[in-house]
Amino acid sequence: MAYTTINKSTDYFNTKLYTGNSSTLNVTGVGHQPDFVWIKDRSSSGDDYAMYDAVRGVNKRIRSNQNDAESTESAALTSFDSDGFTVGTAGSSNGNGDSFASWNWKANGAGSANTDGSINSTVSVNTTAGFSIVSYTGTGSNATIGHGLGAAPQVVLIKELNGTNNWLMSHQPLSASLGDYTRFLTLNSTSAVSGAGNVVFQNSAFTSSVFNVGTSAGSNGSGQNYIAYCFAEKTGYSKIGSFTGNGNADGTFAYLGFRPAFILVRASNLTTNWHLYDNKRDPINPADTILRANSSNVDATNSEFAYDFVSNGFKARSSGSEFNGSGNTFIYYAVGQSLVGSNNVPCTAR
Q1: In the Cβ-directed half-sphere of 301, how many Cα atoms lie within 13 Å?
Q2: Taking Cα atoms as reference points, which of 101, 104, 201, 211 lies closest to residue 153?
Q3: What is the rounded CA–CA span in Å between residue 252 and residue 43?
Q4: Are strands 340-341 and 3-4 parallel, antiparallel or unpaired?
């Protein structure tokens, strides 16, 4: 039984769906003041993802499906509010009549100075939920960077802000299984796991105080600015791991210790997409509606995409190679509702 100190997961993460009006729109019902908001137009093909955080500040957009530099969008996200956020007229976040999904994480506002690493950083951190937002300026030499979590992050996602290098992700459990911590994935592409001996990350595990970067311009170019999103596991609330597909509709079960509310999952050994699931677009099983973090495509629903969200994890319900292919390795980051919190209230199946 996975006990957790997080009794109300929506205090730290929540998916919020909304309909755009092409005017000022206050999106409420998130359950907290978010510090990282990831938005996707679900119904208008061609609209890119829009990502905002409190460290870089409102109006500063980056896109998970593109490698372009940060842009200033004055009519996009205009404020982080006590129960959500406000958007302006930008089509990528508020197209009139369009359906939107937003995924919202709580850190700790604009952040503060951190000197734990060889590179000083600005860190907005929520140690309870295992999430931090880190900004830093690269040196071009092997370096460490403070993340503030007090626990080793299992996923670190980095984007160069003033250049066009790709999004880079270290998934530490995958790297450990491959025996090489230089391995990385690229969020804005379908590329399989890369980087044996590469210089994006150094060949050592992250620690409770710092993550490491190499000399790659994608993670540590001299004088370049970067943002990193860091995630550590928290029992009964978040899980970062992998499973091996069995190629069967009675698919592999991934134990989380909670009922998932959000899953980012992909086959690491294939040229394939990054798939986003949540319990708001799919409130009942099977969860078979996906968005692709590396693509501007809209919601797609197909039985080939299906997973069941159960009380303590998720189970593949497809034989599709991208979702449960036999022998393929699937990595995931999942957030959800606790199975049993410190108040001893159980989470039931749906």
Answers
A1: 9
A2: 211
A3: 31
A4: parallel
Distance CA(183)–CA(174), nearest Å, equals 8
Indicate if the pLDDT at residue 281 is higher than 80.
Answer: yes
User: Distance between CA 216 and CA 129 in Å, rounded?
Assistant: 30
Q: Comparing C-alpha atoms, which of 108, 182, 121 is closest to residue 147? A: 121
Q: Is 57 helix (H, G, I), strand (E, B) or coil?
A: coil
pLDDT single digits (tens) 28-49: 999 999 999 999 999 988 899 9
Beta-bridged to residue 81, according to DSSP, are 84
**Above 70 in pLDDT, residue 25?**
yes
Average pLDDT over residues 51-66: 98
SS3 32: coil
Structural Rg of the chain based on CA atoms? 19
Terminus-to-terminus CA distance in the chain, angstroms? 18
Who's near 344: CB < 8 A, 6+ residues apart?
none
CA 333-210-199 angle, to 5 degrees, is 80
SS3 state of residue 94: helix
3-state helix, strand, coil in the chain (%, to 5): 5, 40, 50
Amino acid in position 210: V
Cis peptide before 173 (omega within 30 of 0): no
pLDDT in tens, 76-98: 999 999 999 999 999 999 999 99
Asked if residues 199 and 78 have their Cβ atoms less than 8 Å apart, the reply is: no
How far apart (Å, rounded) are the C-alpha atoms in residues 270 and 258? 28
Q: Which residues, in sequence order, are bridge partners of residue 276?
A: 264, 291
218 three-class SS: helix
CA atoms within 13 A on the CB side of 266: 25
Looking at residue 345, its pLDDT comes to 54
Judged on CB neighbours under 10 Å (0-12, 13-18, 19+), 269 is middle
CA distance 47 to 287: 23
State residue 176's pLDDT score: 97
> Residue 19 pLDDT more than 80?
yes
**Parallel, antiparallel, or unpaired for β 143-146 and 155-160?**
unpaired
